[in-house]
Write a structure and sequence with these properties.
By secondary structure, the protein is mainly alpha-helical. The chain is built from three helices and two strands; from the N terminus they run H-H-E-E-H. A hairpin with a 4-residue loop joins strand 1 and strand 2.
Length: 83
């Protein structure tokens, strides 16, 4: 396959990852999608950041809810139970 990201089984997932990375560069979403890494002393995507506090985890939940709403992906529970 010439372009694996076009494979029907992963095409949507690749599109969501690309949209998430693009949103992290927009000023409106940057603070929510990026966080300060104490390891390198610079901003990193929150998916790769080590969580060090309750605030980090709360921001992660807010980020996951935003991404679920914006991308239509299923990456957070959105308050619903999996019963």
């Amino acid at each position: 396959m010439e372009n694996p990201s076009e494979h029907p089984l992963i095409k949507r997932h690749c599109a969501v990852i690309a949209q998430t990375c693009a949103m992290a560069q927009e000023p409106e979403y940057r603070d929510l999608l990026m966080g300060e890494s104490k390891l390198i002393g610079d901003k990193v995507n929150r998916f790769t950041k080590l969580y060090e506090s309750k605030d980090d985890l709360m921001t992660k939940v807010k980020m996951m809810r935003l991404l679920s709403n914006k991308t239509g992906s299923c990456n957070a529970k959105n308050g619903k139970s999996f019963e």
